[in-house]
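Entry:
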Amino acid sequence: MKNFLTNCSLKYQFTDEDELIQFISLFELVKREMPTSAKVNFKESIFTIVGIGDDGRCSFCRYLRKCSKEMNLLLEKSCPYERIDSDYKEKVYIGDRVFDLQLFEDERKYLEFSKRVAERKNDLEAHFYLGLINEYFGDYLRALEEYYEVLCLNPKNEFCIRRFNDLKKQNICAKIK
């Protein structure tokens, strides 16, 4: 997570007042479930979140978007950490790399990697992807654990070294406990 001020927004297109009421309830639920120290605001159908560093805003926003999608609420997003490539595939930045958003949005992938690790504790690739997925969804302690497993298997994995150190530097464990 970059240590500069970022401003993200979700512009909702509510079809009626019932959808707005549903969203307000959802918004309050997400605020309780996914704490963030970022500035969060909802006004006139536009949700904005502004923050610096790893303050939980990305996990908050992703969880809100996921729940909104499940409720069939239409929205447009503006996120400096996500983009659409030339093939119209959604990508997300984690650290200094770009990954297909589909990796994180498909729950079957998480289950597949979890099963692989349960069957083979030394499955480096599965630990790597579990670290990414957990970081994406804000489960930083598990992400640290998975990156640590990767580093035990391959101490020279530069990406995992950086992610592990970045999460530790952000004092992630203190935020979780």
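Strands lie at 6-12, 39-43, 46-51, 75-78, 82-84, 90-94, 97-100.
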